């Protein structure tokens, strides 16, 4: 035994004697003539497990790593910093059977990638090197796998490196497959317990999360569907585990890591789920029959007589709860088992915040950048949940009272995070007469999402909002108010009495505009509509109608035991975004008409003429806005994209709904032709520029989403600059501009065609629908982790 040890020490000493003495600098200018032949010979010998050769290779690699990582490295061309000869043998070294040599080779690749952008590009452009590195990531030896994983991360430090890894080498797919293999192995699940140094599993997880969360449009779609499902299942389980560990974070000392990994996991789950379908969406025709019945004429009558005009009680339309496959039966069963008194606190604790997405945001990745490191956060008060009640007034004091909502969680106002322990107190709040109002239910419950999707298609709008209200007996939640969107109130459990006051004749509030106060006569009884909503009933309330509701506790008011129980109703809000009002349709008509003119103009248009014409077109856009502020017709929802349901006509063009749309458009064009005022528009432009009020022009921003040149799109991002330029160029010849404006307006009104506008309108609608569908899919996927 002693002789064997002496022989081993002697052999090691002889190997050390073979290695040249370390030299302080490496002559890279002659690398291919001097060092490369030695490394190549050593690599060939190392394949036969020659220790001396391996030591020589390690010596060269360490020396080169020290040179590349030195802060004062010589300023040499990339070709000398990373010689081609060395690149050519790296694939062999990365996959050799010596773990320490393979790990050192991976470290060299990472160091070269971080050295400069040029060497990073050289590394990622070498297909054999990258493939060898990715194979090393899955190496059974932990040291090799960790070094390779770190090298992949180093390459992705540059945008070009990351994009090429994703685009050309399918790095996300390979990392996710490896992650799923690790999770399925006998070794067990990926651990979230961060040690002094991360293990291989954690490095692969971190790398996969970084690539997923920094990938742009198109890259995530390349991941095979089956792999995406497996990865989502794993990531959701890890996300759930992160919450369990958080409860004991004092024991583990993992506060910072848990916070980081939790939000990164949530973001990855959202991104992988955006283009996947996790729920069965009801067809628009199925939703129509569930609400209005089988008779198509009933829906047509609703559109003609009630839509955006007057409230309507639809008795028992949803009262087919015995049919387990019906829309409202599945909805009632789903919500009933979750929001009962015993399970309420647990249900609320499983919900996460649904951050609002900007109305004109059509890039889901831009939204994700805004909510970076906050996706998957606990619910916020006001944005996600409210616990509120409105005190009752006696008949003697009601004329002088001002209804004021009281919030149970006063300390959570101003959209603060709601702590999980507070949900237990919601049961106490219910007993004290408070209503629990949950927003964004279409992003939390798949049954609600299925109904909301079908309803949005029925009315030709991008999306439908959904809120749930749980109210105890003898209580009122929200004070009397009106909404800026039409609502369908679906009574799922219990009963509720509604009181709807008349609306001002020419009052139609719009989304995202400040809501004015209620009329001074809000307590007068004249013209009020009193409705007792029972289980299965649906109440339609157009936007702008003041309304309030309370549950019943007096035995004189109810006719069955349901009235003395809690009330739960679902409110479906059809939110008409600005582009899909009639004003929006008319803006699109002007845009389409102008694009058609430029395309088919018989005369060439120079840059100066084109610039002046663009300014006049934008001036006409402002004129449309000013007319819409005074004409309620332009504030109404455009139904061009709503689905026709008449089976009595053979031609879609003759459908009553489309005929009404054509008639409305003709009326609007006639109004523009007769009511346009150049002086009023010029005054608006002058005042806006003088005040520097960019906010007053925010309504123009969505116009950049229409089909046009990039330069034209950019103009709508800074409309104030456009108006300044207009005044600067035209202030000295206003009369000529007024004449040109009048001629353009007349030409537009005389030659625009309804049919030309519909395709562009529907194309824009699909863009809005896509973004909102991606948002819905992502948020639903996060909530299915717990629900």
UniProtKB/TrEMBL annotation:
GO CC annotation terms, alphabetical: nucleolus
Enzyme class at the top of the EC tree: oxidoreductase
GO molecular function, one term: histone H3K4 demethylase activity
Entries under InterPro entries matching the protein: ARM-type_fold (IPR016024), JmjC_dom (IPR003347), NO66-like (IPR039994)
Keywords: Dioxygenase, Iron, Metal-binding, Nucleus, Oxidoreductase, Transcription, Transcription regulation
Cofactor remark from the record: Binds 1 Fe(2+) ion per subunit.
JmjC domain boundaries: 434-591
Keyword Iron: yes
Record's keyword annotation contains rRNA processing: no
Localization in the cell: Nucleus
Matching Gene3D superfamilies: Cupin (2.60.120.650)
EC number, as in UniProt: 1.14.11.-
Signal peptide: none
Family: Belongs to the ROX family.
Function, as annotated: Oxygenase that can act as both a histone lysine demethylase and a ribosomal histidine hydroxylase.
Protein name: Bifunctional lysine-specific demethylase and histidyl-hydroxylase
Originating species: Vanilla planifolia
